[in-house]
Amino acid sequence: MTARRLRTSAALFFLGLFGVLETTTISCMNEEGEAVDWFVFYKFPRNQEKENGATGLEYLYLDSTSRSWRRNKQLMNATKSILGKTLQQLYEAYAFKSNNTAYLLYNDGVPKSVNYSRKYGHTKGLLLWNRVQGFWLIHSVPHFPPIPEEGYDYPLSGRRYGQTGICITFHYNQYKAIDSQLLIYNPNVYSCSIPATFHRELVHMPQLCTGSSSSEIPGQQLAMFQSVQGQKFLHFAKSDTFHDDIFAAWIAQQLKTHLLAETWQKKRQKLPSNCSLPYHVYNVKAIKISGKSYLSSRDHAKWCISLKGAPNRWTCIGDLNRSPFQAFRSGGFICTQNMHIFQAFQRLILYYENCNQT
């Protein structure tokens, strides 16, 4: 083969590689490295007694290929954990610097910072997508994830308390609605790359990326989403002008179901159970994970499910606590009627607070 033919073959090879990378299927991933439609995770609180070598990095997860919780094979700070596998796509996208791949990271507790800005929503998440599809990871972990330049790690601050999250794989045609929901979130974006090829369809995320958004923000907005494999989700987003508890004032009444809500029960920063409206919200007081029980004061997770026996069994995962202070913060929850997710979370509840309890 002549030198000219070798150069031509090499050029065609790299052109083909470029084309493959440009159309890579971005997806939520499980621990086996398989693309999944969605997953939820529950990271254990660290035992105060540090029994049995617990590190605060163990977790349960459930994905679209399973029917119940699975115990982790990898610790959460490992690149082979469920979050490590999923976020590896972010680091590959950052290294490749494709004009057809975008990402946006937001957290009110920025990595390597001890400060929390009340200027922004009490929101934590990550989006990665191309013009085919992508994923949205919503979680409760402060200071996570690191910026793409630094690769995967799990923060020390995320180990002490329980944490939850949900990852959903979406076709690109869902991102216009996600774009509108994020405007209401007013997220603290600390790392992003949204090439110009997306700016025609996505208006708000590029502005949030540069900190130049001047759009009028609604007080609240409800959106319906559908995952790549057809799982339906309902997303609640409220701005800081919606001055009320999102659980009692909106989610329970919209879904027409009594709710059991598990959020961080920090001393002097919690709301009592609420039975003043047609659909009630009861605070979960303790959970049980893998045989260990934990009070909600040890749990930084943020989720709710329909009360047992109630119609319309829902599970919602998000980023706001039931707190008088967070009634004035923006944030939201994404909800599904998937029965396996509902049953998985239902089995974790040890007991909850009735409205007549003090």
Question: Could you explain the architecture of this structure?
Answer:
Helices cover 20% and strands 28% of the residues. Strand 7 (124-130) and strand 8 (133-139) form a beta hairpin. It has helices at 3-22, 82-96, 175-185, 204-210, 246-255, 339-346; strands at residues 28-29, 35-36, 38-43, 59-63, 70-71, 101-107, 124-130, 133-139, 163-171, 189-193, 220-226, 232-238, 259-262, 281-289, 292-295, 303-306, 315-318, 331-336, 349-352. It is built from six helices and 19 strands. The protein has one domain. The N and C termini lie far apart (85 Å). Strands 11, 12, 13, 14, 15, 16, 17, 18 and 19 form a nine-stranded mixed sheet that branches. It has an eight-stranded antiparallel sheet with strand order 5-4-3-9-8-7-6-10, sandwiched between helices. It is α+β, with helices and mostly antiparallel strands and 358 residues long. Mean pLDDT is 90; it is low at 1-21.
